[in-house]
Amino acid sequence: MSVENKRSQFCAMSFLPLPDAEVRNVPGSDKLQVHGTWISIDVSSGEWKESLEQVGKPVEQELKATVTDTSSTMESQLRTLFSVDGLLLIGLTNGENKVVGTDEFPVHVSMERSGEPAKLTLSFKRSSPEPAKVLESF
Question: Where does 8-105 show beta strands of DSSP type E?
Fold first, then answer.
């Protein structure tokens, strides 16, 4: 959930490795143009937090998402995918798609296996010079 919009919940996630992305970013704009093939991540639940933007202060961003497919194939694919920095596309229940990260400030997602039954937790916590932006294709 975004701190700015408590009615908007995290419901989908995709990742685009930075080497595979073409990005047009205008600092200060609320939109980000991205060209590339987003890789959908089948998450069973997740939480997205972003602090309110204060002029001159970084935006605090945090994501935790759970993947219940813990097959060796899935785990290997996710480890390979998240071995590079990239952009994260977050789908929200209000229909918005927000891009976290830019070409200059990409996202690094960590992965941890835990629990019984096993689950994979994808996460990051970071300070960003800009908030998540609305996706625009070009």
Answer: 10-17, 22-25, 31-35, 39-41, 45-50, 59-67, 86-92, 97-100
Cα separation, 134 vs 100, whole angstroms: 9
pTM for this structure?
A: 0.89
Cα(91)–Cα(13) distance, integer angstroms: 6
Q: How far is CA 126 from CA 59, 61, 88, in A?
A: 8, 5, 13
CA angle (19, 95, 26) in 5-degree steps: 45
How many Å apart are CA 62 and CA 102, to the nearest integer?
16
| Per-residue confidence (pLDDT) for residue 3, from 0 to 100 | 46
Which structure tokens are listed for 51?
Answer: 């602090």
pLDDT at position 16: 98
